[in-house]
């Protein structure tokens, strides 16, 4: 039996999907940005939820970003404790950030407090959701 | 004691007390998820089965968060999740046997699941920060379970004579042991209360009665005294353990060779 090759804990075939909108990600910057934190937010804005094409930032899942000498920490929550896409999302966030040469490491800090609710969705996110036929109170 | 605490702030005795609580909560969530999952098909309606599916996922999501708290004790949760014998499981006694019928499932929702939430609410307002920071999300998700439980208790209680009798018997059957599990009256529980980590037993019992007593009374169920006979202080539950079949599913035995994490 062929043993699946592992990549960050996922079978290889999972790692070549286009979840997170990776087929639309920008090319990495050629120069380090003047504002690293803002640049990380821009990168994260390109990472889409695997189940619905809305940015993780617009969904309000990113609670914070800190950058120190190329080491990035992303404070990230999920819509549900049993979110089936947790590993996809972690992998997409890490891969998007690691494609930037000025980012040396990425640490994802799982946060549950305050709990995510639909109130955290941005106005832009609500507009996009409505365009997809999803109403948000 | 006041202020936010982590496991490193506690002495060995209190750390052991807190660990007992965390494992018992996590085990209860995991076994409850299995009991719900048995009824994803075979519930009284397709819609109800779908709701049971959502609740199953929630319970396992919560179990995962709770087992992960063991990292705060510098302990790998893996062996606790995947390698223990049934006799080591610390789930609420009421879940040791699977549900015989939908009335049993409703009793698990109305009594065991609601008791779990009472404990989570206590943790959320307590001083142990790693748990209080996670409990609020779990409690928010549990709100739907509570609504489902109340709706089904009322529905069956207002149904046929047999439906009313069966839901009353099921709830009455699991209440005494569940109350004992929810509100232990032993030294570890008292130490946790003194440390501000969890409310005292009488407080949690009062909260359960205040919150759910009227619902159960409407189904003909009186609030009993907790049954603390043969209390197992090491696990924080009564005697016995869940059956091997449930534990094999909880541990993921058949998928052991397929684990990718």
Characterization of this structure:
The complex is a heterodimer of chains A (137) and B (261). Chain A has 137 residues and is an alpha+beta fold. Helices cover 26% and strands 17% of the residues of chain A. In chain A, the strands form 2 sheets. A 3-stranded mixed β-sheet of chain A has the order 3-4-5, with helices on one face. The longest helix of chain A is centred in the last third of the chain and has 13 residues, at 86-98. Chain B is mainly alpha-helical and 261 residues long. In chain B, helix 1 runs antiparallel to helix 2, helix 4 runs parallel beside helix 6 (161-182) and helix 6 packs antiparallel against helix 8 (201-218). The mean pLDDT of chain B is 96. The chains are: A alpha+beta (137), B mainly alpha (261). The interface between A and B is medium-sized, with 18 and 17 residues. Chain B: It comes from Gaopeijia maritima. Chain B: Residues 219-261 are annotated as: Disordered. Chain B: Residues 225-235, 246-261 have a biased composition (Basic and acidic residues).
């Amino acid at each position: 039996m062929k043993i699946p090759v592992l990549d960050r804990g996922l079978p290889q075939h999972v790692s070549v999907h286009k979840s997170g909108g990776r087929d639309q990600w920008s090319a990495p910057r050629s120069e380090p940005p003047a504002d690293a934190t803002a640049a990380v937010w821009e990168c994260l804005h390109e990472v889409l939820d695997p189940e619905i094409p809305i940015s993780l930032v617009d969904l309000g899942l990113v609670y914070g970003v800190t950058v120190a000498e190329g080491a990035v920490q992303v404070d990230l929550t999920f819509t549900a404790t049993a979110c089936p896409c947790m590993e996809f999302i972690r992998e997409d966030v890490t891969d998007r950030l690691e494609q930037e040469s000025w980012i040396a490491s990425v640490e994802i800090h799982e946060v549950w407090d305050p709990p995510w609710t639909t109130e955290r969705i941005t106005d832009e996110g609500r507009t996009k959701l409505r365009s997809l036929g999803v109403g948000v109170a | 004691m006041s202020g936010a605490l982590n496991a490193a702030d506690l002495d060995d005795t209190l750390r052991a007390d807190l660990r007992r609580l965390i494992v018992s909560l996590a085990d209860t969530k995991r076994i409850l998820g299995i009991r719900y999952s048995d009824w994803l098909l075979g519930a009284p309606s397709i819609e109800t089965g779908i709701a049971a599916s959502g609740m199953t996922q929630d319970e396992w999501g919560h179990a995962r968060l709770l087992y992960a708290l063991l990292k705060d004790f510098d302990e790998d949760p893996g062996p606790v999740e995947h390698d223990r014998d049934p006799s080591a499981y610390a789930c609420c006694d009421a879940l040791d046997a699977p549900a015989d019928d939908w009335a049993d499932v409703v009793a698990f929702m109305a009594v065991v699941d609601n008791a779990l939430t009472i404990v989570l609410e206590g943790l959320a307002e307590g001083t142990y920060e790693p748990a209080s920071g996670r409990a609020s999300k779990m409690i928010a998700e549990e709100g739907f379970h509570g609504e489902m439980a109340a709706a089904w208790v009322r529905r069956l209680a207002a149904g046929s004579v047999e439906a009313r009798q069966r839901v009353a018997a099921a709830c009455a059957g699991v209440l005494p042991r569940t109350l004992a599990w929810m509100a232990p009256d032993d030294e570890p529980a008292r130490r946790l209360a003194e440390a501000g980590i969890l409310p005292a037993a009488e407080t949690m019992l009062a909260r359960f009665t205040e919150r759910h007593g009227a619902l159960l009374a409407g189904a003909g169920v009186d609030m009993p005294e907790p049954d603390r006979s043969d209390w197992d202080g090491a696990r924080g539950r009564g005697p016995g353990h869940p059956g091997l079949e449930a534990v094999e599913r909880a541990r993921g035995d058949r998928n052991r060779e397929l684990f990718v994490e």
